[in-house]
Every structure is written in C-alpha cells, then in structure tokens.
Amino acid sequence: MVTPIYIIENLIDGLVLGGIYALTALGLSLIYRVVGVVNLAHGDFLMLGGLIGYYVILLSGGVSQSLTPLLAAFPIIFLLFMVFGSAFNIGLIRPMVKRKPSDFLIGCVLVTIGASFLIEDITANLAGTLPRGIYLGLGPLVIGEVSIPQFRLISLGIVCILTLLFHLFLKRSFVGVAMRAITQDREGAMMMGVNVNLVSTVVFGVGAFFAAVAGLVYLANGFPIQPYMGVPLTVKALTVMILGGAGSILGPLVGGVIIGVAETLTGSFIDFYWSPAIAIIILIVILLVKPTGLIAE
User: Fold this and answer.
1) Nearest to 200 by CA among 297, 104, 76
2) What gap in Å lies between CA 85 and CA 91, rounded to an integer?
3) Is CATH 3.40.50 what the domain over 4-289 is classified as, yes or no?
4) Each residue of 167-178: pLDDT tens digit?
5) What integer pLDDT is reported at residue 64 of this predicted model?
6) Between 20 and 30 A from 163 (CA), which of 17, 58, 205, 257?
C-alpha cells in the first residue's frame, strides 16, 4: 500500500541520488564550458573515487557508527584527483589543442573514450571485477512516522556545501574569474593575460574531484562500486547536463534532482527496470519543449 510516508522516504532517496548525479554533471559541465571537451571518461573518475574511498575507509577502521572514515578519505580524494585530473588534461587533451576544431572534437572523443576503457581494464585487473560496497550506518532520524537514514541528510549537506563553495570560488577567486572569462570570450581572456592552459588544467582537476566525491558519497550510501560502471555513469551525467543546461551551476543541479527523483519513484511505483529509461524519456520531452535545457545562460 502506498502511503505518504513511503512517498516521502522515496523522495529523500531520490534527492540523494540526484545530488550524486548533480555533482558528477557539474564537473563534466565545468570541463565542457572551459576546456571545450566532453570528457567521456568522466564516469570512471566517479568509479575510481568510490573505489579509492572504499580502501581508505577500510584502512581507517572500516564501517562504524562514525563519520571519521569518510572524513579521512576527503583530503586524500582531493589531492589524488586534483593531480589525476590535471595530468589527464596535460597528457591527453593539451596535445590536441592546436588542431583545427573538427579534428580536436573527434580526437577528444576518441582519446577520452579510449582512456575510459583503459581505466576500467586496469582497475579490473588490479582490484578485481566484484562489486565493492560499504555503508556508513549512523542510525535513522525519526520524525513522526518517517524514518530517514542520517547519512542521507549528510549526503545532501555535502552536495549543498560543495556547490556553495564552488559558487564562491567562481565569484571571489582569481582562478574562478578567469574560468568565467574563458567561457564568455576565450580569445578576449587570452588577450587580457589569462593563462588558458593553466586554467584548463585546474578545471580538469576540479571536475575530477567533484566526480570522485560523488563516487565517495555513492559508495557511502550503500551503492556498489565496480570497474565497468563508468560508461553508464558518463551517459547519465551527460543526460543531466543537457537536461539542466550546461550554461550555469544551477542547471546540472536541477537536472540531477529531476533525474534522481524520477528514477527512484519509477523504480518504487512502476518497475525497477524502467528507472534507466525514464531519464532518456524526460530528456527527449525537455529537448522537444526547450532545446537549450531547463536553465541556460
């Protein structure tokens, strides 16, 4: 029997899943806007973030009624993926920048999808193909008859805090202003002395970090991590980015929440196997009505 309590609990689960999608799409959107690259290995960054988080949590004490293992993983994830994302840009993307636009586009597609396959195969050989899962159970928060796992609310808090910090970073820091300048007028920014190569490298690092944090939250909410999940997640992030509109921070957030809630409610009230399809159905409807996405600059 469907009750209001059941609906509320499913909505909260959908918001958490949507927040994970939003963080992933936010990093992808940022890379696309500044560097001009659709990174088809982006979902693998999420997978690696979750997998590394899994081992860090195990080494720092394993599953417990505490946030300490998760907090221990954050600085490690930040350092590793800022370096990894920066190296990804320098080693794979920058060598193609001087090519003509059509060659650059095709080259980036081939290089990033190749990198995706390579990352997945190396990860499968090193860590195995079995799914890894962990759950930081902190006990439920009971409000009347509604029971909400506390980490669900913490996950939403993580998404909101990271989004706010990133907004402040874009508005207040020199690098953030340089990023916005490049998205508005790349040539003009270069004429004003903006080091486009350096900013692009930082952007790839930040984008990789966002995806890795999404992977960490994904893992800590009990979702399994396995090496070959990257491509479907990249497709999901692209769907969210296009749905919300890649022209603003708010776009991927709105798109992520819509997709997350829609998938959760579809799985609960119709059939689990329809959950992946509902995202594509929503995307098609939105593009027919508003081709630029829900929110676009």
Assistant:
1) 104
2) 10
3) no
4) 888 888 888 888
5) 57
6) 58
